[in-house]
Amino acid sequence: MKPIAAHLLTLSLAGLLTGAHASDAPSPFSLSGFGTVGAVRTDKDNRLFRSSTEQVSGAGTDFDPTVDSVLGVQGSLILGTALDLTIQSVVRKGVADSYAPQLTWGFLRLQATPEIVVRAGRMRTPFFMYSDSLNLNYATPWVRPPVEVYSLNPFADLNGVDALYRTPIGATDLELHVYGGKSSLDIRNGGGKLQAVRGVKAALSISSLTLQAGYARSNLSIHWGDPMFTALNNHLFATGNDAIARDLSGNDSKGTFLSAGFQYDSDRLLMIGEYARRTVDRYTVSAAGWYFTAGYRFNSLTPYMTVARQIQTAPVTSAQSGIAQLDDLLSLFNAMRNKSQSSLALGARWDVARNVAVKTQVERIQPGPGGLGIFANDNFRDVVDPGGPVHVLSISADFVF
Amino acid sequence: MRPLRALLLLVALLASSPIQAEILVVTSNRSGPIELTRDQAEKLYLGRSTTLSDGTPASLVDLPNGLVRDEFYLKLTGKNPAQIQAYWSRLVFTGRALPPKEARSLIEARQWLTDTPNLIGYLDRSETTTGMRILLRLP
Q1: CA distances from A278 to A58, A313, B33 (A)
Q2: A133 near B80, Cβ under 8 Å?
Q3: Contact B93 A124 (CB under 8 A)
Q4: Higher pLDDT residue, A17 or A269?
Q5: Is residue A224, in this structure, part of any structural domain at all?
């Protein structure tokens, strides 16, 4: 993570140097940031709530500040009339509970024509509606983006290029976004890769309404490394079930990500809805998710409700070995990757100050069927028997600076 | 008790009533031939456009947080301070656009808009100087 720190330091120094001059012209450097201080708890100690599937630990019946809290710092440097550099680093509990700073943005941006922007470097995978601002809770009514949709893509980073084309069509604004690149993700004792990612996204804004749709394809490799997988994999090879083993992990899968959504944001009424789908050939489950949010602004207070659901459309593998003990392990392996759940959330956003929003949210989450949803649990066997609903209480303060 | 309550009410009313002064969108006299319509100004200050009608890149100035800034955005875009903050946060932190350059003080903004060519900014009418040219009036 040294390079990020070095880049930020360089940018900061550039800012200090330019800022030290008399202020007869604006500095080409700007520094800004955002963050969330949050705490969350559930009503069950054996259902640990996580804000992403990459987190290993989660919140039980004690308030846990590590699930939602996040800090991001961003520096931008204008290099020319049409060229600038942006670097963003984020600290939060992520993959395998690591707090290592992540380079979330690090790109050169060229304003090629008045309508076309081209960027190259580290970006966010823009598969779904809020994918490029998942850490920026200040900009949304929720405590966090609905996990039913946003857990469908754990690959957050994109190393590549993209182009944004923006043009007015009468009173409508059209934005077309095309991108390509690759992405990788560390998981405990393993890893995943998206290669040859190529996607397109279109957004249409008509006064208070924005409609958005996106589609992306990619090659997918996943290598699981947890003890349960290793045991299962060894058994499969030992019993001649190589074909099944090749469905669980390897370098030869393809995936598609599809999403369609809308935002309606008038003076008072606020509505957001999105449907998203991940389809893969093998190595993990195929699933679909959606949510709908409605809120109403009473001056600085915005109460809202959200209904959301994720369903599995295909398990990792439906093959059977014919060996009872092995098939039992296979169904457990499938269930551990099934994040199906449905939820109802009631919450409120309170804009306490210009740059600060305080939020609270109560959710009733029914995990399953066939898995524990977003919850973590030490007991393997619970994933095939998720039980009744879990209630989750969240309190947070979001800020930008 | 009564006079005090009446006084408090008056103070509250004065404090909550929007300022009625005119806001002017201006540039330095040293700037090139900049033309700006209200529609263009709105697009620029919402990050929906980054160039003037002739294609030259526009550099924008923001005042520090305060009443004139809030009034400017409300008049030009119809968005209140919280909405505009959330809106620009999304643009900036998704790498879509760079925000207008925020001056540290009104004095600095006036200095920029007087001395630096080709910047566009806004000021309360009473704060403009003779070194500036008026591009747009927001009554």
Answers
A1: 24, 9, 52
A2: no
A3: no
A4: A269
A5: yes
Residue A23 lies in a domain: no
| CB atoms inside a 10 Å sphere around CB A385 | 11
What pLDDT does residue A23 have?
Answer: 63
Residue in chain B lying closest to A357 (CA): B82
- Name which of B48, B65, B82 is nearest A351 (Cβ-Cβ): B82
Closest approach of B1 to chain A, Cα-based (Å): 31
Q: Structure tokens of A162?
A: 């993209």
Give the pLDDT score at A379. 84
Residue A315 belongs to a domain with what CATH number? 2.40.160.10
* A86 interfaces chain B, CB cutoff of 8 Å: yes
Residue A43 lies in a domain: yes
Residue A97 has pLDDT above 80, yes or no: yes
Check whether B80 has a pLDDT greater than 90. Answer: no
CATH class of the B21-138 domain in this structure:
alpha beta
Question: Residue B67 pLDDT > 80, yes or no?
Answer: yes
Task: Give residue-wise pLDDT tens across range A199-235.
Answer: 999 999 998 899 999 999 999 999 998 889 999 999 9
Residue B96 contacts A where some CB pair is shorter than 8 Å: yes
> CB distance B89–A34 less than 8 Å?
yes
What residues in A contact B57, CB-CB < 8 Å? 81-82, 111
* Span A35-55, average pLDDT: 96
Number of domains in chain A: 1
pLDDT of residue A189: 81
A381's CB contacts (< 8 A; 6+ apart) are: A332
Q: How far is A364 from chain B (nearest CA, A)?
A: 28
Specify if A349 maps to a domain.
yes
Structure tokens at B39: 């529609």
Q: Contact A351/B119, CB-based, under 8 Å?
A: no
Nearest CA in chain B to A164: B96
Mean pLDDT of chain A: 93
Which of B51, B82, B112 is the closest to A25 by Cβ? B112
Boundaries of domain holding A186: 2-18+28-400
Q: How far is B93 from chain A (nearest CA, A)?
A: 7
Give the C-alpha separation, A317 to A314, whole Å. 8
Residue A132 contacts B, CB cutoff 8 Å? yes
Among A11, A64, A23, which residue's Cα sits nearest to residue A41? A64
Name residues whose C-beta falls within 8 Å of residue A306's C-beta, 6 or more positions apart in sequence: A142, A146, A291, A292, A293, A343, A344, A345, A347
Query: Helix (H, G, I), strand (E, B), or coil: what is residue A136?
Result: coil
Closest CB to A354 among B48, B65, B108: B65
As given in the structure block, the two tokens for residue A105 are 């943005």
